[in-house]
Amino acid sequence: MSPSADRTSGEAPPPAEPPAAEPPAGPSSTGAPVAKLPATAWAVLGILSFGEELTGYEVRQWADHILRLFYWSPAMSQIYSELKRLEQVGYASSRTETAEDGRSRRLYTVTDAGRAGLASWVGGAPVEPPVLKHGPMLRVWLGHVADPQRLREIVTRYRDDCARMRAEAEYSRDSAAAVPGWGYPELTARWAARHYAAEHELAGQLLDDLDELAASGRVPRATAPAEDAGTVPGR
Question: Which of 18, 193, 37, 20 is nearest to 122 (CA)?
Fold first, then answer.
C-alpha cells in the first residue's frame, strides 16, 4: 500500500471538498430508480464493488492506494458519512465482527441493489469535465508580487512532487497487475503514471521559462503605477 501523499506547492493543501450530488442516472438494471448521491458516495461504493468486505479504515487505504492518484483522498469522517448514506439507501450493508482480542469492527459490503445502481451511474450519469485547480501555477501567475527565488523553489517542489507521485502510481499499477480481475484499476494507475510524468516534464520546462524570463529583463515591476491599476490585460 503506498503512503498517502498530496500534491502541494510547499504549503498544506486545503481540505478536500466532496463533489455535489449529481442527477440520477435513471433506472438501474433491476428497474429500481437510482438513488441521487454525490460522486463521493459513488466512489466509496466503487471501492466496495471489488467484492471485499472492508472496514472504514480499509476503504481509506484503498482510496490512498489508487483513487487519490486521479480523483481525491477522503477524510475518515467523509468515508463513514458516505458508508452510512449507502446503508440508508440500501446500497451497502454491514455486520459487526469480534476479533480474538475481543475488539469489534464493522465490515461493509456492496448489496445487489448497490452494484446495479453503481453500474447505472457509471453508464448513465452526466460526466463533468475535470476542473483544474493548480496551486503552483496560481503562484506563477502572481509572480509579479513574489520573490523570484521563492517562486523557483515552489516550482521545483512541484516538479519533485510529480516525480514522487509518478513512482507511487507505478507502484499501484504493478500491484493492480498482480491481482486477477483488476485490469481496469491497472489501466487507471498506468494513466496516472503517464499524467505525472507529463506534469514533471512541464514543471521542468517551467523552470527553464522562469530562468529565461529573468535573463530577458522583462520581469514585471512588483507594483504597477497608480494610473495603470485599473488596466485589464487585452484592453
Answer: 37
Q: Which of 129, 18, 114 is nearest to 73 (CA)?
A: 18
pLDDT per position as a tens digit, 125-136: 999 899 899 999
The domain tally of the chain equals 2
Amino acid at 121: W
Residue 85 is part of which domain span?
39-124
The reported pLDDT for the residue numbered 217 is 85
Average pLDDT rounded to a whole number, residues 19-39: 66
Strands (E), 81-230: 92-98, 104-110
The pairs formed by 99-105 with CB atoms below 8 angstroms and a separation of 24 or more are 105/55
Q: Are residues 95 and 160 in the same domain?
A: no
CA distance linking residue 53 with residue 74, whole number of Å: 19
Asked whether residue 227 is assigned to any structural domain, the reply reads no
